[in-house]
Write a structure and sequence with these properties.
single chain, alpha+beta, eleven-stranded antiparallel β-sheet, 11 strands
Length: about 260
């Protein structure tokens, strides 16, 4: 549950009059801020998000718990996994806790023919280790994005890129919340929203959660436009990083199928 916003963007009478004059263009989804001298409400949000992104990008490696709930096709996919991440070379190890408990996945940029390596648990483990394209249909049947976009920094970068594209348009409201809880973290939340569907707005509402203590982005939520009046906006994407540990140095061994701690 989010508290009431502690910051709002108030318009002066002059700014409000200018906004009314631009309303016709905004109603057609046309760029309306290109010739304005006032600050777009997303600009402060982007600056704040960029600071958080910089902290995430500075992490050379870390371990964390990753949870996701996302719409893939017409199905909501929910997963929870232990993650190891290294920035150079870009490397990801996943141990699934639910569903598919025991499934392991490894991806290292520039290795294994550009593919990820996956090993199932239980009876399915008899198949052995599979080499799969990160963007192949088998992998993408459970994911909106390929593993090449995994990680805390990429989570924030995707939101920043989205907001930067939306800077040229009106019909954007931004709110800020404090003392929001996600797992063990107390967070500030930046929330952007758009009143009605437009071709340039992929989501009705976006929330970026930033941990107060570390400054890291720990959650991103994306909501679709409600299909009925007074209906709740549907969850399209919800990604959470928790139990983040950056105090241990990860090596090639952590991203090797021959690691004796793994079951490949």
């Amino acid at each position: 549950m989010l508290d009431q916003p502690f910051t709002t963007r108030n318009l002066s009478r002059r700014q409000f009059a200018s906004a009314l004059a631009l309303l016709a263009g905004a109603s057609q989804g046309l760029p309306v801020f290109a010739q304005q001298t006032g600050e777009h409400p997303l600009q402060p949000a982007i600056k704040y998000a960029e600071k958080s992104y910089a902290k995430a990008a500075a992490l050379e490696s870390y371990q964390a718990t990753f949870q996701k709930r996302e719409l893939v096709g017409n199905t909501i996919v929910s997963q929870r996994a232990k993650m190891k991440f290294r920035s150079d070379p870009f490397s990801v190890y996943l141990y699934f806790e639910s569903p598919h408990e025991g499934r392991e996945v490894i991806y290292v940029d520039g290795r294994n023919n550009g593919n990820l390596l996956a090993h199932e648990s239980g009876f399915a483990s008899l198949i052995g280790t599979l080499e799969l394209s990160p963007t192949g249909s088998q992998v993408m049947s459970e994911n909106r994005y390929p593993i090449t976009r995994a990680g805390i920094a990429n989570l924030a970068k995707a939101v920043i890129d989205q907001w930067q594209k939306e800077l040229q348009y009106g019909e954007t409201d931004v709110k800020y919340y404090k003392d929001a809880k996600v797992g063990e973290y107390s967070c500030k939340v930046i929330e952007s929203s758009h009143p009605r569907p437009r071709r340039q707005f992929p989501f009705h509402m976006t929330r970026l959660w930033i941990d107060d203590k570390s400054g890291l982005p720990v959650r991103v939520q994306q909501f679709g436009f409600p299909t009925k009046r007074d209906a709740k906006p549907p969850v399209i994407e919800d990604y959470i990083f928790s139990s983040i540990r950056s105090d241990t140095r990860l090596t090639d061994r952590d991203f090797d199928v021959n690691n004796p701690k793994y079951n490949f």
